[in-house]
Design a protein that fits this description.
The protein is of the alpha/beta class. Helices cover 27% and strands 25% of the residues.
Amino acid sequence: MLRKHITDHYSVSEQINLDDVETLSQSGVTLIVCNRPDNEEEGQLPFAEIEAAAKAKNMNAVHIPFVGGQLQPADVDAFKSAIKGNDKIHAYCRTGNRSSVIWDAANEVSAETPSDMAFDVVIVGAGTAGISTAASLLKRKPNMKICLIDPATNHFYQPGWTLVGGGVFKAESTRRNMSDVIPKNTEWIKNSVKTFHPNDNKVTLENGKQIAYQYLVVAAGIKLNWDAIEGLSETLGRNGVTSNYRYDLAPYTWELAQNLKGGKAIFTQPPMPIKCAGAPQKAMYLSCDHWFKHDKLYEINVSFYNAGGVLFGVPNYVPALESYIEKYQIETRFSHNLVKVDGPNKRAYFATKDENEQPIIVETTFDMLHVCPPQSAPDFIRNSPLVDEAGWVDVDNETLQHKSFGNIWSLGDVSNTPNAKTMAAARKQAPVVAQNIVDAFEGRSIRAMYDGYGSCPLTVEKGKIVLAEFGYGGTLMPTFPNWLNDGTKATRLAWILKEDLLPPFYWHGMLKGYEWFVKPKMRK
């Protein structure tokens, strides 16, 4: 049973068995909900058997079946009635999707956008960049009419997933209900954008409604393209294949690291650009640190397969990382791009070139495989009139204003600015976008500038981090003086920053519009 937590009190999964009922009981579940009809597929365990096993464990069980795509209001009402008064609920169907859909329907304030609407600012995407921009706008102009468009129910502190995969954080600590982090006095439209109409200052939603804006902010994030690697999607979360790039898989990384006693561990990195270029290495170093401290590393062959040609893009930080490559005896293979995974047989296939520069495929076995997937702008962005030839939103590197449409800005992972795609970059970009929009709104020249700052806390062992901070062109941009924290070396202070200070700073500072250390620089 691959259990996905929607909230602290509600989880979903694929079809469960009788052993899973025992597991759910031990975890404190008080109600099991089945959302699939009996006899939906051959060999399916009947609901009556699940119900009987649940009752034997003093749990309630209720059957609210519906066919995918055919959820009815009566089903939602029955679900609302069933879950009332239960502290911990688990629902299942064939894949878990229907159980997620019925939860969303039961908790959604309004399934439809009320009518065609108009706003001062429309922000596409309620991730780190979008919410931070909304909060910064409201700090400057509290009466501004703003809406955030995003269909997601949950908001995640994604930098925490590295520490989940290293056994430091629990996954649940990185999740909040989206409704709890949307800034006050901001309209949240729980839908998806289908098309952009920049000449008409409108966006069209998936439900056909049009939203008009005076200013548009595109903060739609990045697409993790799991299906670009043959066989990967089918084996994720099983057969020793994992990734810290997903909330539900990061705990599996830690499970694998704990249970691996010997064999071969492979960590991969795809071609750039990707979200947080150091994350594939972070997973590797924390796993190696665990094996090193438990005297298991000598029995495990660790390899890093990188589609790129260097360990890290900013040379100043490479010596510190290489010292850990040597400490953990990691074999590095550059210009090797993962193209296929055979999970059941535990084989990975990499595209590379031979000594004559001819394309070849290299095959290798594994016992643990941590994958970073190829990444791109989301499809609805790549197919829009807002992008450059590579499919990223085309903006000025400093002002973050669109190069063709003067009332559009973009920030975060989806823009084409040549900085590292990290949370720290979005933290620095949000005040720039907010200041420039307010200045444009009030008829002033835009002057706020982004300097390309990004940060990558490279967790090289539990308790120490190489705090890489740099801007455009790889220029070092340390927050702290060298005597306090030398960012080119692994330090305890940087670990304290990541583990103890940054999470509360994120939830209670950045998402609230507090701009500590990131006041925008103004063009003279």
